[in-house]
């Protein structure tokens, strides 16, 4: 697979404009041979909404208008697209990522970990297990932004057979260290490819830091975006590297397999409900002024 990550600015509350600009970048990436093109979190809608009522007007079902738009584009141009949007299902709203190809929706994901930030303050927590699908011969798992700070997210996907994790994200100022180090770590500890695709620009007082990053299963950076510019990152995905979990450094003397070497019998605490209050949701707002 040839992978492309589109680091771009987004216009809040203007899905038509955003889809049009995404289509232009998708065509450009396809002309460079990309099989899968990944866009940022909430690329269709923007992120810094101020209330649940405000975002309702821009939420849509999956499948729906945006998935149909991009599926038609894939039917015309080939390839597949992963992108962020706000999903509406009855009276619930989710920060979602959709993966579409020429035949329509391939998979979707609802963000499990929600920070007290932007639109995530007003959305419902993702309610589906982490899952793996396949596109262009690669087994793919989807996460979104804040999920990358929770190693369990990508570990579950790796155990389910993911060879690549795509992370549409909206990293704001303050996430620079995570952008620089966490993506490489998630790739290394699971021996998978990891593609984090961030946005740039400013939105309602928040500046987004770019620094998109694609890492190989050893944690090496294959492509890194700038802090400010719109650009397209490219990387070649060799699935055999992600399938080779046992790393032989010295034959018979130094072997590493971070999946086989796990000791899950000691990890039970990880699966216990913690009961801690969620900042901004379960605690009074005065605590965070």
Could you outline the blueprint of secondary structure elements for this entry?
Layout: E1 2-7, H1 15-31, E2 36-38, H2 52-56, H3 65-77, E3 80-89, E4 92-101, E5 104-110, E6 132-135, E7 138-142, H4 151-159, E8 164-168, H5 176-190, E9 193-197, E10 200-203, E11 206-209, E12 213-215, E13 221-224, E14 231-236, H6 239-243, E15 247-250, E16 254-256
Helix pairs in contact: 1-3
Q: What is the mean pLDDT?
A: 96
- List the helices and strands in order: EHEHHEEEEEHEHEEEEEEHEE
Q: Low-confidence segments, ≥5 residues, pLDDT <50?
A: none
Question: Strand-residue fraction?
Answer: 25-35%
Q: What do we call the CATH homologous superfamily?
A: Carbon-nitrogen hydrolase
* Topology-level CATH name: Nitrilase/N-carbamoyl-D-aminoacid amidohydrolase
């Amino acid at each position: 697979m040839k992978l492309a990550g589109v680091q771009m600015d987004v216009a809040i509350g203007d899905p038509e404009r955003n889809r049009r600009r995404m289509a232009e970048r998708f065509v450009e990436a396809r002309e460079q041979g990309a099989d899968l093109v990944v866009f940022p979190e909430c690329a269709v809608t923007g992120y810094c909404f101020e209330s649940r009522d405000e975002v309702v007007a821009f939420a849509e079902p999956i499948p729906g208008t945006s998935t149909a738009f991009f599926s038609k584009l894939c039917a015309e141009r080939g390839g597949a697209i992963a992108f962020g949007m706000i999903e509406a299902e009855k009276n619930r709203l989710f920060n979602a990522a959709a993966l579409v190809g020429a035949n329509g929706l391939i998979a979707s994901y609802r963000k499990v970990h929600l920070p007290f930030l932007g639109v995530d303050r007003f959305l419902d927590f993702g309610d589906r297990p982490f899952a793996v699908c396949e596109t262009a011969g690669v087994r793919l798992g989807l996460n979104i932004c804040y999920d990358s700070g929770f190693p369990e997210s990508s570990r579950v996907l790796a155990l389910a057979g993911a060879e690549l994790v795509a992370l549409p994200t909206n990293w704001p100022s303050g996430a620079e260290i995570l952008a620089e180090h966490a993506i490489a770590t998630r790739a290394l500890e699971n021996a998978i490819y990891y593609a984090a695709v961030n946005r740039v620009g400013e939105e309602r007082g928040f500046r987004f830091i770019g620094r998109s990053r694609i890492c190989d299963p050893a944690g090496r950076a294959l492509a890194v975006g700038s802090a400010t510019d719109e650009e397209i990152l490219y990387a070649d995905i060799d699935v055999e590297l992600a399938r080779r979990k046992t790393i032989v450094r010295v034959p018979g003397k130094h072997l590493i397999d971070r999946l086989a070497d796990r000791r899950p019998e000691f990890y039970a605490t990880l699966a216990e409900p913690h009961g801690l209050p969620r900042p901004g949701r379960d605690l009074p707002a005065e605590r965070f002024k």
